[in-house]
Design a protein that fits this description.
By secondary structure, the protein is α/β, with parallel strands linked by helices. The protein is 32% helix and 22% strand. The protein has an 11-stranded mixed beta sheet. Strands 3-2-1-4-5-6 form a 6-stranded parallel beta sheet. Strands 9-10 form a two-stranded antiparallel sheet. α10 packs parallel to α14. The longest helix is centred in the last third of the chain and has 19 residues. The structure holds 6-O-phosphono-beta-D-glucopyranose (BG6). 6-O-phosphono-beta-D-glucopyranose (BG6) binds next to loops.
């Protein structure tokens, strides 16, 4: 009789070959905001990659929609340029492009003009009839958030939204930001669910499509040895870093002024990473199972009173300085579209607590910022020190070794770049002395798997076309995340609000963030 207590299949195993992932239903994709940056950099290149891998249906139409007038051909040329630049497809051959381009169309629509949607409906019918693509529709809203509701209402008005249960359903992907605070997110959810069922709404957070973000789940729940250590008995604290070296890139200032780092990254990417690092294993690996567990983490976050915001949150804004590559860069306040006396935060660091049985008392530190020394996203789980220090720890740079503090074990999920997982532990230094030295054991994607890592948008678009919303955000997830962030925004607006600290571009943020690290802890400097 077997002595193992492993349950083999709690659910149907997923697809085992790429061919099983191919979408076969005739499909029309309609991208609102088709002349914008996201379409050129991410969406069209992702569709092209999926199409090159034969994962899209043969009956496929992609219709770009935006306010400027363009003939189909001019739009195709623009997209061709984008794909050559961003698709990472090696050389895109003329034949390949011609074949793909025949699926691509353009329609001008003023987003708030009902007449434009009637014209869009006629155009879609024409295209769908000519290309045999009249079945499922995927609408992608890559516009300013102020248009989300207008677009959905107008699509509903002209009958372009088919029921979720229909053999040929319509689905809508909504880009972030989903609301700018709790009240607006609740309102938007209420408004759009008058027209769409929850299973038709795909709220995107592209971090959830990143291979290494998904690997957090497989690492935790596909291995037996680490998960048992992921709790307050063994973990001292967790550090989540989403650092960027870029600033406003001359074009995002006006948008960023309305957002700031807390709304732009913490409310979504940051809290999603925290959920994946902290959640319980779901009973079954289904979309609902995963969403339910993530929501429980968000619900357990300790909401901050204004005095706690002053103690546990540090906000900063960059002033002029040098970036990693030695280039001098301007202050945030001198960026295009930014107010000269702006108080928008380009950096935020928080100490968060998850008040549940697993994590009670374990601080989670989350920091994000623009114009930091490097682009790096990682989650570092720092374990407690052993109960007794028997050995002397030394650290060496070249041949010069110094006695140092004992180094705790760390498990680091490197989300980007140099994707991988590292375990830091102490080993005996060779020689007569009994000294230990911190060493690092690395798993690197590009060394272990010699395959290209798919772009986040490729996975997410394919999932949406296949009707799988696991990696999209459910309404309660977005709302609960805002419920946590809202009191911080309010405390920042209130009289006597905690100060905004300035940091030089190219540094790791304001020094004040160090005070969050109590009990001898310190921020990690991610390895280059
Ligand atoms: C976006 C933010 O959601 O994520 C941007 O709006 C940020 O400000 C970007 O630059 C970071 O994404 P990535 O994939 O480059 O880490």
């Amino acid at each position: 009789m077997s002595t193992t207590s492993t349950v083999d299949f709690l659910h149907k195993p997923g697809p085992t070959s790429l061919a099983e992932l191919k979408v076969t239903t005739p499909t029309t994709v309609v991208i609102f905001g088709a002349t914008g940056d996201l379409t050129a950099r991410k969406l069209l290149p992702a569709f092209f990659q999926l199409w090159s891998q034969k994962l899209l249906p043969d009956a496929l139409s992609i219709v770009g929609v935006a306010r400027r007038p363009f003939p189909d051909n001019a739009f195709r040329d623009m997209m061709h340029e984008a794909i050559v630049k961003y698709a990472d497809a090696g050389t895109v051959s003329a034949e390949q492009w011609q074949a793909f381009a025949s699926h691509v169309h353009y329609q001008q629509v003023e987003f708030d003009d009902p007449a434009g949607y009637a014209a869009l409906a006629r155009r879609l019918e024409e295209i769908e009839t000519a290309q045999g693509t009249s079945c499922q529709r995927l609408f992608y809203l890559a516009t300013a958030p102020s248009f989300f509701l207008d677009i959905i209402e107008n699509l509903g008005q002209v009958g372009l939204i088919r029921d979720a249960k229909d053999r040929c359903p319509s689905r809508v992907i909504i880009e972030k930001p989903f609301g700018h605070d709790l009240a607006s997110a609740l309102q938007l959810n209420r408004d759009i669910t008058r027209i769409l069922a929850e299973e038709q709404i795909y709220r995107i957070d592209h971090y959830l499509g990143k291979e290494t973000v998904l690997n957090i789940l497989s690492f935790r729940f596909g291995n037996a040895i680490f998960e048992t250590l992921f709790n307050s008995r063994h973990v001292d604290h967790v550090q989540i870093t989403v650092a960027e070296s870029i600033g406003m890139e001359g074009r995002r200032g006006a948008f960023y002024e309305t957002a700031g780092a807390l709304r732009d990254v913490v409310q979504n990417h940051g809290l999603q990473l925290l959920c994946l690092a902290a959640m319980e294993p779901p009973a079954v690996l289904t979309s609902k199972g995963i969403h339910d567990e993530k929501v429980k983490v968000l619900q357990s976050l300790r909401i901050m009173e204004p005095s706690q915001v002053a103690r546990d949150v540090v906000r900063g804004q960059y002033v002029a300085g040098s970036t990693v590559d030695g280039q001098h860069v301007p202050a945030y306040r001198s960026e295009e579209g930014v107010q000269p006396r702006s108080t928008t935060e380009t950096y935020v660091a928080l100490r968060l607590y998850i008040d549940n049985w697993r994590w009670a008392g374990v601080p989670f530190y989350l920091r994000t910022g623009k114009r930091l020394p490097q682009r790096v996203t990682e989650i570092a789980v720092q374990f407690k020190q052993p109960p007794l220090h028997f050995f002397t720890t030394v650290e060496c740079i070249g041949d010069v070794c110094d006695i140092s503090q004992a180094k705790p074990n760390q498990l680091v999920f490197r989300i980007q770049p140099d994707e991988g997982i590292s375990l830091i532990f102490s080993a005996k230094r060779p020689g007569m002395l009994f000294q230990i030295h911190p060493v690092q054991m690395d798993f690197l994607y590009n060394r272990s798997f010699k395959v290209k890592i798919p772009e986040a948008y490729e996975r997410l678009l394919l999932d949406a076309l296949r009707g799988d919303s696991t990696l999209f955000m459910r309404s309660d997830e977005v709302e609960t995340a805002w419920r946590y962030v809202d009191p911080i925004l309010q405390a920042w607006r209130a009289p006597g609000a905690p100060p905004l600290h300035f940091y030089e571009a190219g540094t790791w943020g304001p020094q004040d963030a160090d005070r969050l690290m109590d009990n001898g802890r310190s921020w990690r400097t991610p390895a280059v």
